[in-house]
Amino acid sequence: MEAMDSQLAPPAVVFVHGMRTSSAIWREQLAHVRRLGHDATAVDLPAHGARREERFTMPRAFEVIDDAVAGFGPGRPVAVVGLSLGGYTSLAWAARGTPHTARLAGVIAAACTSDPKGKPVALYRDLAQGFVDAGGGVRAAISKVSDVVRGVPLPGRRPGRSSTSPGGADLRKVAVTPDQNAEPYRPGWHVVTDALTHLAGRSSLDALRRIDAPVWLVNGARDHMRLEERRHLRAARDASLVVLPGAGHDVNTDDPVSFNRVLTRALTSFSAAA
């Protein structure tokens, strides 16, 4: 009876943060989904937050998500929400086909529609590694890569153009308060090379083809890394694409109100499908 009750409960939610941030970025979203009646937790990836003493590896990141899923009890459906590095990690985790992923109700993958096997991510990795090896300014390297990426035309809608969710709801731009980006610990730049090295051998497109659950892809219109969002949309078995017009790469903090609306619609659709 307890297992059946667990299966009928709304999906629990695991939030996975981006590179050089921590679980702290999900405060607004944790509060939001809990108000909707979902159990939820936000994890710290290796080399971040409470796990700052660890080196980032993808197998260890998978263990962190596995532990979070197991923490909700046997049989409980789970949705995973990932941003950037957390999005790539969540897609790779969901594609593994393990007992933990068998409980997957859906994935919300934000700011992760440039395939890690492609040129932009490899360029970030190689430049960052070169500057680390030389003891130079990694910030300058990342800035140079950003300049390169900005020269590539964005697919689909232009930045700033009006956009709606799949259900037609208006997704409006709102101000972000200063403390929404505050966090107690920010990893050093060494984590960039570790994380991108582990991503480089994995294709998010291949992961999407293997995921047997609905996937929502969420991007900010001003994110210059959304180069392949249409390819990602086509690769998935069951996918939706949402572009928030006023947001950049950090879409959940750039426009938390609209991002939370997307969470509501996605989690509702996951529950209905289950």
UniProtKB/TrEMBL annotation:
Composition bias, Low complexity: 153-168
Transmembrane segments: none
Residue segments, region Disordered: 153-172
Taxonomic superkingdom: Bacteria
All copies of domain AB hydrolase-1, residue ranges: 13-259
GO molecular function: hydrolase activity
Keyword field: Hydrolase
Protein name, UniProt field: Alpha/beta hydrolase
